[in-house]
Design a protein that fits this description.
245 residues, 60s Ribosomal Protein L30, Chain: A, Alpha/beta knot, 4-stranded mixed sheet, 9 helices, elongated
Length: 245
């Protein structure tokens, strides 16, 4: 089985960070220097290169913005939750993020991109009723999937219990609570939870959280996109932890 990554930046970032890659497919009649960095990495890693017409690349990427380059790779390898917890066991300021049934791959990719930029240790998603890491996620993350650990778990609520046992405080985003996200003490190990685009966090998962926080809406808009909400919480926690950018 294999999947694809497309777009210059996504392909380049993947090749920089990973040794694996099955095949690069370039659009016919591409400019000589347009993909020189990608081709240089492909040569070093013995990845074969083929050419296709634009219409064939359009079909291969479901008419995505491939920019003339596609990388065929093995199926995405999700991280193991236990291994992640072992790695961060001695990290007092660790931040993780749980996504409770985020179904839009564009949202998932954007959140992974922000999480990687903010230095989070991992993003955790459920195995069911959730977007998977696919070509759209790779593209939207602008290559961040090559660096950010993404774990898939069977049960979000059981995962929260494991995180609490490992010393994490868990905060869920909920527009109906009275507490603003900037009123929380994010010192210590922190896990942030973002819910489904329409329903938000499930009732049982809310009950598992140590606290619920909201992002104040000053204007007429009632809520933010899930990826924007994730970004606000991530950088709110980082700033409170006094990380320097």
């Amino acid at each position: 089985m294999s999947e694809i990554i497309y777009g210059k930046n996504s392909v380049y970032e993947y090749l920089k960070s990973q040794d694996a890659g099955k095949k690069i497919i370039l659009q016919n009649n591409h400019k000589k220097d347009k993909f020189k960095d990608i081709l240089s990495l492909a040569k070093k890693k013995n990845i074969k290169v083929e050419n296709l017409d634009k219409k064939d690349l359009d079909k291969l990427t479901d008419f995505g913005n491939h920019q003339g380059v596609v990388l065929e790779i093995e199926d995405y390898q999700y991280a193991n939750l236990e291994e992640i917890l072992e790695i961060v066991s001695q990290k007092d300021d660790s931040i993780l993020m749980i996504l409770d049934e985020i179904t839009d791959p564009h949202n998932l990719g954007a959140i992974i991109r922000t999480a990687e930029a903010g230095g989070l240790d991992a993003v955790i998603i459920p195995k069911h009723r959730s977007a998977e890491v696919n070509a759209t996620v790779h593209k939207t993350s602008a290559g961040a999937t090559s660096f950010m650990k993404v774990a898939r778990v069977t049960n979000i609520n059981q995962t929260i219990e494991k995180l609490k046992e490992a010393g994490y405080w868990v905060y869920g985003a909920d527009g109906h609570t009275d507490k603003s996200y900037d009123q929380i003490d994010y010192s210590g190990k922190t896990c942030l939870v973002i819910g489904n685009e329409g329903r938000g966090i499930s009732k049982k998962t809310k009950e598992k959280c140590d606290d619920l926080v909201k992002i104040p809406m000053i204007g007429q808009t009632e809520s933010l996109n899930a990826s924007i909400s994730a970004a606000v919480l991530i950088y709110g926690a980082l700033l409170q932890k006094k990380h320097k950018f």
